Structure prediction request, 122 residues.
Amino acid sequence: MLSPLPSDPPSPRSSPCGDASRQTAPALSAEDAVAAAARRLEAALEALDRAIACHAERRGELSDQEAEYFALQEDRSRLARALDAANTRIETLQDNQIEAARRVERARAAVRAILAASSGDG
Prediction:
């Protein structure tokens, strides 16, 4: 079993809110504070612009993927209809083949009967 890590008292610099560093930092002039805030705002706006661009790019990719998906679904439906039509055609051809074989067999039997009757007459 692992033993717990020794707990050190937090140092003033490792304060989770950064309050200790603010207390020890030299005071900024109003102009410097405004300039620093403007830089942070500019950086935040640039980060927001990048995030929006990435989001728009991802949405575009998703739209492309959705369009491709729907095209594939259309192709699948079209191919399924074509397969159904081909299977129906095959069944019709098989039925016609069976009927043709029956007719040929009847004709063959009729020819044999005629040949047998004619050879018995002669």
In short: Residues 5-21 have pLDDT under 50 and may be disordered.
